[in-house]
Amino acid sequence: MSEGAVSAEAQAPAAWLADLGEARLDHEPESVRAMRARGLERFSERGFPRPNEEDWRFTNVAAVARTRFLRPPAGIDTAAAGRALASAGLAHCHEVVFVDGRHVPELSSPGVPPAGVAVHSLARARPADWEAFGAELGRRADVVNRPFAALATGLFEDGAVIDFAPGAVVETPVHLIFWSSAHAQPTATFPRVLVRAGENARATVVESYRGAARGVTLVCPVTELVAEAGAAIDHYKLQHESLDAFHLALFHVEAGRGANVSSQTFSLGAAIARHDVQAVLGGEGAEVTLNGLYLVRGRQLADFHMRVDHARAHTTSHELFKGVLDERARGVFNGRIHVHPQAQKTDAKQTSRNLLLSAEALVNANPQLEIFADDVRCTHGSTVGQLDDQAIFYLRSRGIGLEAARSLLTYAFAADIVERTRVEPLRRQLQEFLLAWIPHGEVVREAV
Question: Which among 6, 87, 138, 162 is least buried, having the fewest CB atoms inside 10 angstroms?
Fold first, then answer.
């Protein structure tokens, strides 16, 4: 589709929206209805992003704009869904399952969540629940500059609110599974997640976005994570949906005084996967780590757009993103660290590293610094290249064949991020995927 055609669609999203209808939850307060209206109004005004916009010039969403998406049909075959979900579960986790955007208690972990944590389904929330978290939902998500977050804000029909009590030490990870089924018509879902960690809480949250092997789906999640003073949260996101899927997500992190948030994103599936990440270090001494890994081939595209705001003094952020691309895949990394005038003693480091396995693969990387304080330590860097010939020669000189040497180096490059995963069953899943994904992975399996 030409850019002109995309622009025409971008100016007229009303017909596209009409197929999806409206969304409204039982008992949702007026503040949530007003939030929905603002989101839809903003999306209708702005339309679909176009390639002539700076933040979207490498990610063309014409395929989304020209596809007619419907809501998934109500009702599921629980037994069949359970079989499909068998590979998505993680041992020793409290799992909350959503199928086609809707909570399914029968497939979730039985019983109450671990001590110190409360989990709510938005579709099942009662008036008292809305009083507890309604004002927080959507308060931080940027719907002005992020069109798909605006769309999701207007159309979400379920999601999860996770509350970790002040001082709670929750050893069992909470695992949210969002499964997209295959349907005859393309379908769209808009998962919503709010994680709130009280003062000095310690906990782990995993978000998994999985789906059937085939099927055109649009998944637009919005996740807000708020860590109050002294809280420490480990967060993981696994995106492993159909290669026909579109995944267009916003993840917003807010860290209070002395809070520590670590998040890792693994982008493995989807035809187009766009991850908008925004972190605000709003309390003195806050620390945020944002790491990511994407593995793409064929004509897949993975796009990470990040903004990290240092709003207070003595804050620390570290970002390391790695990509491995094969065949005609595309990667985008656009990272911005913004240091506010009052954020003296900021320590920030941002790194993007990309490995091309094919001469036709392409990466566009653009790390940026915006510094308005004069006593800071900030660095950024980006590398894009192929496997090191000297490293290959070194391995071959020790009796390792050419293909085996290439596979070992590729595995080592990507495994650096995988090994940082502290949830063991998730780490094992990622290792297995990596070994199956890289060329001649069976050779690496024998070696490691």
Answer: 87
Q: Do residues 222 and 153 touch, judged by C-beta distance below 8 A?
A: yes
Look at residues 364, 410, 366, 402 and name the one whose alpha carbon lies nearest to residue 386. 410
Q: How far, in Å, CA of 140 to CA of 255, rounded?
A: 12
The pair of three-digit structure tokens given for residue 317, joined into one six-digit string = 């952020």
d(CA 237, CA 362): 24
Phi and psi, residue 446, nearest 5°: -65, -30
**Pair type for strands 94-99 and 102-103:** antiparallel
Kindly give, in sequence order, each residue whose CB lies less than 8 Å from that of residue 277, ignoring residues fewer than 6 positions away.
Answer: 250, 251, 252, 253, 263, 265, 290, 304, 305, 306, 307
The tens digit of pLDDT for each residue in 252-305 reads 999 999 999 999 999 999 999 999 999 999 999 999 999 999 999 999 999 999
Q: Which pair of structure tokens corresponds to residue 142?
A: 């940027």
Cβ(336)–Cβ(366) under 8 Å?
no
Q: Say if residues 304 and 277 touch (Cβ distance below 8 Å).
A: yes
Backbone angles phi and psi of 223, in degrees to 5: -120, 130
| CA-based nearest residue to 178, from 163, 164, 193 | 193
pLDDT in tens, 32-82: 999 999 999 999 999 999 999 999 999 999 999 999 999 999 888 888 888
Burial class of 389 by CB neighbour count within 10 A (0 to 12, 13 to 18, 19+)? exposed
CA dist., res. 304 & res. 249, Å (int): 10
Cα 241–Cα 82–Cα 187 angle in degrees, nearest 5: 40
Residues β-bridged to residue 63: none
Backbone angles phi, psi at 144, to 5 degrees: -80, -45
- Give CA torsion, residues 360, 242, 5, 274, to 10 deg: -70
In the chain, what are the helix, strand and coil shares in percent, each to the nearest 5? 25, 35, 40
Pairing of strands 117-121, 159-164: antiparallel
Amino acid at 221: P
